[in-house]
Amino acid sequence: MNTPAPIMRTLAEMRATTLPWIRAGETIGVVPTMGALHDGHLSLVEAAKKTCDRVVVTIFVNPKQFNNPDDLKNYPRTEEDDARKLTRFAVDSLYVPNADQMYPDRFSTTVSVDGLTDVMEGAHRPGHFDGVSTVVTKLFLQSAATDAFFGEKDFQQLQVVRRMAGDLDIPITVHGCPTIREMDGLAMSSRNLLLSDRARVTAPRLHEEMEKITEGLAAGQPFGELQRAAITRLENAGFTEVDYLEIRANDDLSLLDTPSRPARLFAAAWLAGVRLIDNIAI
Fold first, then answer.
1. 1 pLDDT exceeds 70?
2. H/E run at residue 264
3. Is-contact 136 58, C-beta < 8 A?
4. Residue 246: closest CA among 204, 199, 280
5. Does 41 participate in catalysis according to the annotation?
6. Which residue among the candidates 38, 41, 128, 207 is catalytic per the annotation?
7. What is the pLDDT of residues 32-47, one digit of tens each?
């Protein structure tokens, strides 16, 4: 039976742990999370285990990527349960840094990626991606990882992290892993824990409407008509607001009227006070 991974809470502990791995020339995979782990996160851990000699899972609820104080306050925190879920994977370290390890007194540096962060999540959550880029840069450097694993469910974040690592010449390979869904199609997310029982029944409608759009596009229907009809049906089902429902290119996230090059359909919508996001390839 596997024993729980040792929990590291300081940078000094993390570096003392990874130094022998580095000297031995071992590959180190990092899976950055904010906790409240679900099967989507665990699929990233599994991919890291298959790819790398050593695996570090990080849990840090990063205050710099929340533009809403209530959102930060309400974000689920389940460290003990998370540690139990990771036991079967025999990860080498669980890094749960204290806030002062990430943002010590007089911390004054921000990592910002232009272009990719101006749309979708960046437009609706000002400063969000600056917070993501800053903390991920620190986690890459603190863990000395050779590989990092992110879910395609947050596809915009994945592209931002790839651009950031490339631009800053961080010697790491960023892997994108498929979105993991519930049986009814809802993309797994820690925020799903915040849904009421009634809202949880309605939530899969977002993915259903996205699939209807992809089917309509394949049949030659104009995207604008499909988009308007889907938004109307979502609002009638109980969604209070659709922040965006649009086609964007995979590489630079530029807005498209039709999938004329590799693209995805992206959506963000509010349901009973919880913001759900999703994307699917088209």
1. no
2. strand 263-271
3. no
4. 280
5. yes
6. 41
7. 999 999 999 999 999 9
